[in-house]
Amino acid sequence: MKRKVAVIEYQAAGRDALKGKAEGDALEKFLGMMDDPDYWRTVPGAQGADIKLTGEEVEIIRRIQLNEYADTNYDPYEPYVDFFTGTVMQTPLNSAPEPKRRFIPSKWEALKVAKIVRGIRKGFIKLAEEEEQKEQIYDIWSGELDASILAVKSRHISAPKMALPDHRESYNPPAEYLLTAEETAAWEAQEAEDRDRNYLPQKYGALRHVPGYGRFVNERFGRCLDLFLCPRAMKDKIKMHPDDLLPVLPDPRELRPFPTSKSIDFVGHVDRIGSISVDPSGQWLLSTSTNEVRLWEVQTGHCRFTWNDWEEVHAVQWNPNKALTMFAVAAGTAVHLIVPCSLPTTDATLAAIEQLQSQPQPDTEAKLKWKSCDPFQNRGIIETIEHPGTVTDLHWHRRGDYFVAMAPTAPSGAQMISVHQLSRRTGQHPFKKMPGILRSVRFHPTRPHLVLATQKSVRIYDLAKREQVRRLLCSVQSVSSLALHGEGDNIIIGSHDAKLCWFDLDYSVRPYRVLTNHVGAIRSVAFHPAYPLFASCGDDGAVQIIHGQVFSDLSANPRIVPVKTLRDFVGSVSQIVFHPIQPWIICATNTGSLSLFV
C-alpha cells in the first residue's frame, strides 16, 4: 500500500511537494521547548516551517491582547484639525463658481412659449372667455323634496315573499298526504276560517292532466289585501343584555364594617326570648323570656342580675338618655320603671328618682295610676303603671322623658295606646279608637309624631295637632315589626309573608323597595343608630345584614345593598338589636340562645 503524505502543492514536473518538516510527537515538543530559548516566540508557519517572531511583532500581539492600539505611534487624543474654519482660503473646497446657464434665459422654455403663441394665433388653443353672470332662479322646495325622496327610499321595506308550496300542493303528492273520505267530509263540514288549509290535496297521473287553478284570482286578491291592510314598518331593535337591567351595586367588601361572625354567647335563658335592648353606652344588655329579665355585660357575656318576679314579660327597653340608668319592663298589664341596683347609679338618676317620688299623684284615670315603690326593697323598681290590658310593646322618646305603651287587649280602642311622661308622673290616651289590629308603636326621632303599625298599614300621627299626617300602604299580608331611621325620613317594616318593605317618606306612600330575602315570616327589623346598616330576622333561622345608605341630597335615592347573611342559629330568630356604637348585632332565638356578632 502506498504511504499517504500530506500534499501542499505540486512541482513543475508534476511531483508532490511535501512539507518541509514533519511534526514531532509530544516528547519531542517538550524537549524542544526546554532546549530552545526562543520557543515561546516561535509559531508554525503556513508552509509548515516555524517562524520566529520579532520584538515588534510580539509587542503588537501584547497590545492587541490588552485591547490597546497595535501601532505604538498612534495617538487617539491628538488635536482635532478643523478644515472649515473662519480663515478664508484662496481655493474653496465646495463652493464652485455659479455656472453661466443660471444667468441666461432657458432655450427650451422659449420654444414651449413660442409653440403656445402659435397655437393661440392659429386658433388651436382657445382662451376661456368671461361669461356674463346671469341671475339664477332657485327652487326653494328642491332640497326638501330630495330629502323626502331619500327618506322614503331609505325606509323602503320589501314585501314578504309568499310561502313556498309543500308536498300537499304537488300534482302527484305521496299517499300519506292524501285525505280519506272521512277526512274530506270533516274538512268540508268546517267553516272556511276554521280550516288549517284552503285546498284539498289531489293526485294526477301526469302534469298535462292538471286543470286550470280555480282559486288563482282569490289568492291574488288575498295577497293584495295583505300588502294593503298590513303596512310594513321599520322598528329599531334594542339589543340589551339582561344584566344591563339590574342596578350596579358596589362590592360588599367596600361597604365594611358590618357584623360577620359570632363572638359571644349569652348563656342562661331556656325559653323563647321575646325582647332585647342595649343601653346607650353599649355596655349593658337586657333580655326577657317568659317570666324573667336578665341583665348582661356585653363585652364579657356575664349575667349581672336577674328579675323573675313576674308571670309574663313581653317587652323591655333602656331609657335612651345617657344620664339616666333606667329601663322599662312590660310585664302583664303593668309597666315597671327599674333602676338596677347592681349598676353604679349616677347623680342624674338619683335626682330623677327624688323628683319622681316627690310629685303628687295626679287626678287621672284609675287604670293609669302611678304607684311609687322603694327601689331598695323592690329590687330597683321605682314606679309601676297599671294598664287596662296586657302591654306587649313599649318605646321611649329619644329625650327619655316620654314613653308609649301598647295594650292590644284593652277593652276599648281608646285605651290601647298610652303615652306617659316621666317628669310629671302622668299618662293619657291620645286616641279615641284604633284603625285596626296593632302590631307596633314608635316615637318619631325628630318630630312630635307617633308611628302606629297595624296589620295592613302604617299610620303617622301628629301629637301636637292631634291629626293623622300620613298613611303608608304596605301591600303585605300582615305587618309584624317596625323600625325608623335615625333621621326619620325612612321606615322599614317586616311582614309574616317574608317581605321587608322600605318606605321613603319623601318619595311615596308605597314601598320604595321590597326585599324578599327570607323564606319564612319576619319577626324583627332594626336600624343601626350610627352606621348605614339595617337588619331583619325571621322563622327561617337567618339574619339579613343590609347596607342602607341615605343621602342628604334629596335627588339621590337610598342605596340598598345586601352584604351578609348570618345563619349560625338553631330555630327561629325572634329578636335583633344593633349595638349603639359599634357595628355589632345581638340576636335572640325562640330556643333561648342569645349571641353577639361582630
UniProtKB/TrEMBL annotation:
Coiled coil region boundaries: none
Query: Where is this protein chiefly located?
Result: nucleus
The record's Gene Ontology biological-process terms are: maturation of LSU-rRNA from tricistronic rRNA transcript (SSU-rRNA, 5.8S rRNA, LSU-rRNA)
Q: Where in the cell is it found?
A: Nucleus, Nucleolus
Keyword set, alphabetical order: Nucleus, Repeat, Ribosome biogenesis, rRNA processing, WD repeat
Its cellular-component GO annotations read: PeBoW complex; preribosome, large subunit precursor
- Looking at the record, the residues that make up the BOP1 N-terminal domain are 8-259
Pfam families hit by this protein: BOP1NT (PF08145), WD40 (PF00400)
| Residue stretches of each WD repeat | 515-545
Q: Which InterPro entries match?
A: BOP1/Erb1 (IPR028598), BOP1_N_dom (IPR012953), WD40/YVTN_repeat-like_dom_sf (IPR015943), WD40_repeat_dom_sf (IPR036322), WD40_rpt (IPR001680)
Q: Does the keyword Repeat apply?
A: yes
The question of whether Repeat is a record keyword is answered with yes
Domain of life assignment: Eukaryota
Q: Which GO terms describe its molecular function?
A: large ribosomal subunit rRNA binding; ribonucleoprotein complex binding
Under what name is this protein listed? Ribosome biogenesis protein ERB1
User: What is the species listed in this Swiss-Prot or TrEMBL entry?
Assistant: Paramicrosporidium saccamoebae
